[in-house]
Amino acid sequence: MVSPVPVLSIVFCIVSALICFGIPVGLAIHCIRHTPKGHGMMAICTGAICFIVSALVLEQIFHSLVLGLVPGLTKIPAAYIVYGCLAAGVFEETARLLGLRFLCKRQSDSPLMGLAYGAGHGGIEAIMLSGTTMISNVMVMVAINAGSSDTLLSGLEGDTYDAALAQLQQISAIAPTDFLASGVERLAAMGLHVALSMLIWMVATKRLPLWGYALAIVLHALTNVPAGLYQTGVVTSIWLIEALTVLLVACVGVVIWKLYQTHQKAPAAD
After folding, report:
1. Around 202, how many Cα atoms within 13 Å sit in the side-chain half-sphere?
2. Are 209 and 225 in contact (CB under 8 A)?
3. Rg of the chain (C-alpha set)
4. 130 and 183 in contact (C-beta within 8 Å)?
5. Which of 50, 176, 178, 201 is CA-nearest to residue 113?
6. Are the beta carbons of 182 and 16 closer than 8 angstroms?
7. Residues 109-145: pLDDT tens digits?
8. Contact indicator for 204, 216 with CB cutoff of 8 Å
9. Which of 125, 168, 234, 262 gets the highest tally of CB atoms within 10 A of its CB?
10. In whole angstroms, what is the distance from residue 91 CA to residue 187 CA?
11. Contact assessment for residue 197 and residue 256, using Cβ atoms and an 8 Å cutoff
């Protein structure tokens, strides 16, 4: 039998799902309402597509090649963290630069284009990596608490049954606050993507030189370090990781806001 799931687990899953879906939708509505017809939606879609292609396709292919050539890399935490964080920064910020250059030349060079791109990039990441999982978790948790565990496992046999049962037991045993941590993580990630999109927007519109692109890669990599520490088992406290991530994202936001205040005016025409 699978133990009942704490009610708080269900509540925190719902909260995290609302964060993952609600904030992107809210940002999207704001951008669409305050940009010329079609521009905001184009920027949101471009951000979403750039994330999927760069992070979920090209970066994963690159990881497969690198880890195939250097399989021992995962056994060296420091090297693996540096590699993983820089890879994420390079792939996503390159896609961000290409996407915003396209948008600012074809659509508009308004700062709202940077905001809309960030909403699309960070929003689709939140929805795909966490939001859908939280909804699935809620459905499974409700079924467990309704005594329908057997229905979830019906038709399964052998190793498949054992694996599914272990998964249900794991969901039931997870601390409720861990589900809330997922929402906090996505909230921080969306804030980071909006901030980095504004930084790259300044590069795309020539308000900043190309070093702004290199800075975006470094800042992106730095904010991924806590996640790398958790994945490699160097730090095991999920809330310590979330606290470090939020602190780093806040610092990145301050740095980019200062740059924006200094470089928000359009460059002089050649």
Report:
1. 24
2. no
3. 21
4. yes
5. 201
6. yes
7. 889 999 999 999 999 999 999 999 999 999 999 988 8
8. no
9. 125
10. 21
11. no
Given this model, what pLDDT does residue 269 score?
56
Q: Does 267 score more than 70 pLDDT?
A: yes
Task: Please report how many Cα atoms fall inside a 13 Å half-sphere around the Cα of residue 49, on the Cβ side.
Answer: 11
Residue 205 and residue 265 in contact, taking contact as beta carbons nearer than 8 Å: no
In the numeric block, the tokens 């936001």 are attached to 253
Query: 């998964």: which residue's tokens?
Result: 167
d(CA 126, CA 131): 6
Which residues have CB under 8 Å from 88's CB, separation 6+? Answer: 55, 59, 220, 221, 224
User: Could you report the per-residue pLDDT of 74-89, keeping only the tens digit for each?
Assistant: 999 999 999 999 999 9
Q: Which of 59-73, 166-180, 200-214 has the lowest mean pLDDT?
A: 166-180
Q: Say if residue 232's pLDDT is above 90.
A: yes
Q: Six-digit token pair at 259?
A: 């740059």
Paired tokens of 70? 């250097």
Neighbours of 65 (CB within 10 A): 10
At residue 132, what is the residue type?
T
